[in-house]
Design brief:
With about 500 residues, this protein is α/β, with parallel strands linked by helices. It contains 17 helices and 17 strands. The protein has helices at about 15-25, 35-45, 60-75, 90-100, 115-130, 160-180, 185-200, 235-240, 245-250, 265-280, 325-340, 355-360, 385-400, 415-425, 445-455, 465-480, 495-505, and strands at about 105-110, 135, 150, 155, 205-210, 225-230, 260, 285, 290-300, 300-310, 310-320, 370-375, 375-380, 405-410, 430-435, 460, 485-490. The strands form three sheets. The protein has an eight-stranded mixed β-sheet with strand order 4-3-2-5-1-6-7-8, sandwiched between helices. A hairpin with a 2-residue loop joins strand 10 (about 300-310) and strand 11 (about 310-320). Helix 13 (about 385-400) packs parallel to helix 14 (about 415-425).
């Protein structure tokens, strides 16, 4: 979306007076499946409740819904998340006039290419298990914009989201008037998150970067723990064309004296991260060296893990998520929380195993190999790049015994679509290509042309409307008794998954 014209901005006829006024105001399936299933049931009986409402529906109250839509419309009038001016100048100015709310609490900062949101949710659940009040900021959202800002494991209430926006709006307008470009959609949301966390108040914030690290709007915090999930090629037009170049941008979240929790990385990316850590005297804990996954078994509804953390080994952990990648995310999350508590550096002890088990058993991650329907089984996964698609492909092959799998794929136009399709080709019997409702969506016919090159003409069906694509895929899965065990995987974009979730009645 283009930058609004000066005439669209807040009236800044005398910005200095108003600016000072506001500043003044601000300063006052396994062979032993039966055994594993029994273990899973036992672990569930001792687990905590699943995390709170994960994907909220529209507000039931018409007036609240109307007010939320008005806020969404105002935010949409700003630069979108894909239009960037790489700088933290504007967000720093906003934090200044708000009274530096991001410094009111410690934080854990998360970057990487894949797995950030799932890892953030796990970290949040672990901190909640130790009775810490948490704020979590993640992006993008699956269905509701309010998902991005969570308090104590649940999305912020619509009324509070609206109130937070209205509270910071005058400050946002003052910064707009002082800067060459208005604050972006993501910058305003980041300001809202940091302000709402300070207002709550929270004991710790769990913050996921939007893109990159160095100039990401979230990078006005000084986190004691920096988490780097696996790095692969994505946003190459903005972050770099090699893992090392991308790592250079993402390493910007590593602050002086912090602890870095480093997931398994390509060698060149790891080298960049380690070099940055040395430069700022940060301590590094590496997956496969200081922590990792010791063992993993398929369990009913997820997997059974033994994790090695910074303070020792944690056995019999039930994680209700599918795929090896989620086990690795769990190891990263556990070590991040240990580091936050000073374990491994200041203290040689383990965290309470019962609290760890309860926390992991409560984790939900919508749109990540999420089953939303049965007969036939429909699974949603927000994979949007080749590495994410490979993880999803491996996870679904391991956890589900589909006799035939139909893919429903709708992607964004700025992604490595061919690479994503090639990662899914071995597991899809047929693919229905479609598009979501956003301007970023790749045209269904354009996507079909690439799909035909990957799958062959006889395995590709085109349905531009997502509802028609879902119906076509379910029909294909049901069409023959021979394929009673067929399933459907909807993937390609967080937006596609979110819209499918609504259409399938999960919103």
């Amino acid at each position: 979306m283009s930058e609004p014209r000066p005439s669209d901005r807040h009236d800044a006829s005398d910005p200095d007076d108003t600016f000072e006024e506001i500043v003044d105001e601000a300063t006052q399936r396994d062979p032993d499946l039966a055994v594993i299933e029994a273990g899973s049931r036992t672990l569930r009986t001792h687990s905590g409740q699943p995390q709170g409402e994960v994907v909220p529906a529209r507000p039931a109250d018409p007036e609240t819904d109307k007010a939320l839509r008005a806020v969404e419309q105002e935010l949409a009038g700003r630069w979108g998340e894909t239009k960037l001016e790489p700088s933290v100048t504007r967000i720093a100015a906003l934090m200044d006039v708000l009274g530096e709310p991001q410094r009111a609490y410690p934080s854990i900062h998360i970057t990487g290419t894949n797995g950030k949101t799932s890892t953030a949710r796990m970290i949040e659940a672990l901190l909640n298990a130790f009775e810490l009040r948490t704020g979590r900021y993640t992006s993008p959202h699956v269905q509701s914009i309010t998902e991005r800002i969570s308090l104590d494991g649940s999305p912020i209430a619509p009324e509070r989201f609206i109130e937070t926006y209205e509270d910071i709006k005058p400050y946002v307008e003052m910064v707009d008037a002082q800067q060459p470009y208005r604050l972006s959609f993501f910058e305003v949301l980041t300001g809202m998150a940091y302000a709402s966390f300070a207002d709550a108040p929270v004991d710790v914030a769990v913050v996921e970067v939007g893109m990159g690290g160095t100039w990401d709007a979230t990078n006005v915090i000084d986190s004691t723990v920096a988490v780097v999930t696996p790095i692969s090629l994505d946003h190459t037009d903005r972050l770099g064309t090699t893992p090392a170049e991308i790592a250079g941008e993402k390493s910007g979240i590593i602050k002086e004296g912090a602890t870095v929790i480093l997931a398994q990385q390509p060698v060149d990316a790891a080298q960049v991260m380690l070099k940055k850590a040395v430069e700022v005297d940060a301590t590094v804990a590496r997956e496969g060296m200081e922590f990792g996954v010791t063992s993993r078994e398929i369990a009913v509804g997820g997997q059974l893990l033994t994790l090695r953390g910074l303070g020792g080994e944690y056995e019999d952990i039930f994680l209700p998520l599918y795929g090896a990648h989620q086990a690795h995310n769990a190891a990263v999350a556990l070590s991040a929380v240990e580091a936050f508590f000073g374990i491994g550096a200041e203290q040689a002890r383990s965290l309470d195993i019962d609290a760890i088990r309860k926390a992991f058993a409560s984790v939900l991650s919508p749109g990540r190999l999420e089953v939303v329907r049965s007969s036939p089984t429909v699974v949603l996964d927000a994979a949007h790049n080749p590495a994410g698609a490979k993880a999803a492909s491996d996870g679904i092959s391991e956890a589900f015994s589909f006799s035939r799998l139909i893919g429903v794929v709708g992607t964004s136009g700025d992604k490595d679509v061919r690479g994503l399709l090639e990662a899914f080709e071995p597991i899809f019997a047929e693919i229905v290509v479609t598009q979501n409702s956003t301007p970023r969506a790749m045209d269904a016919d354009e996507l079909a042309a690439i799909a035909v090159e990957v799958f062959g003409d006889d395995r590709v069906q085109v349905e531009p409307r997502l509802d028609d694509a879902l119906e076509a895929a379910i029909t294909l899965a049901e069409e023959d008794d021979e394929y009673a065990g067929a399933g459907v995987l909807v993937t390609g974009s967080v937006i596609t998954v979110g819209e499918a979730r609504l259409l399938l009645g999960r919103g």
